[in-house]
Amino acid sequence: MSDSNNITVLNPGLYKNLLAQVEAIYKHSNELSFKTRARYYEATKRFCKFLADNFRLQNFKNVEDRHFKAYVEHLKENNAAATIQSDLSGIRYFHRKSGSKNRLSKNDKLSLPKRATGVKDHSWLKTEIDTMRQLAIGQGRQDVIIAIDFAHEFGLRLEEICTLRIEYLMSALKTGQLVIKGKGGQTRAIDLSAKQRSIIIKYLDYARCSGRYPRDYLISASEKDGVKREKRSLQNWMSYNRKSFIAENREDLYEDGKKKRTETISWHGLRHTYAQRTYAEALQERPRRARKIVSENLGHHRTEVTRIYLADTPKKK
Questions:
Q1: DSSP 3-state helix, strand, coil percentages of the chain (rounded to 5)?
Q2: Of the CATH numbers 3.30.230.10, 1.10.443.10, 3.30.450.20, 3.40.50.1370, which one belongs to the domain with range 126-310?
Q3: What are the pLDDT digits (tens) for 198-247?
Q4: Please, how many CA atoms are within 13 Å of residue 273, restricted to the half-sphere of its CB?
Q5: pTM reported for the whole predicted model
């Protein structure tokens, strides 16, 4: 099911129930400005989807701090600091209005990314990627290792990795392009390099040894909610292990011509690393189309968004 905002909902009945409760609060509230209430309402609708899909919650009044913290980790993967803080304010507003007796953590207890006055560099350091990989190998987390490769080498989002089917990889070897259906239903085709082909071949061998069929997902279970559980597992792994491989004082380890790095790292940051590497390679081969190539491979189709990923400092006139 999809709502009017194109939000795909796995549990539509639970989502509608939670939404009706939040909507009742919205209609009978006159605090704050109309614009602020509307923004808070949209943020809380997204939270309701998360609650329905991940916790099967039926009563918004029963939202607990554990639900709230889980959603915070979800938001950290693909949202700017300002967006996260605004969304959390909206959720707290409706939670308070619901009459709930449960308390939600304040921002200073949630390890939120800091607001930046300008865009920062979200890419990873090579040492962070290598250390993360070794940790995953030591723990026997093959799904994490695969997720690292497809985020770092192909620029895929976490959702796209979890929904990657064996047949997509088989087709990619035949056509030379990995076709991905991404955010908003937009489809993009990534032209395979020699290294990307070798990665696909390696994981097709892994899939065969694991007894997976073409219609199966590469890392997610095929049964109901398999993708959702795998995505949550990867997000939790990042949350619990991030401190083990994040570089100290990483904000100070920035490159010439680049903006300062963020103080934390996320799965989405690997897409930024991919974008910067792909851009550097494209500049050597097709300089006039370099930004366009990165934009298409990321699935944004807008070069202005690509600038955020590249994190270049503005050149002096």
A1: 60, 5, 35
A2: 1.10.443.10
A3: 999 999 999 999 999 999 999 999 988 899 899 999 999 999 999 999 99
A4: 23
A5: 0.65
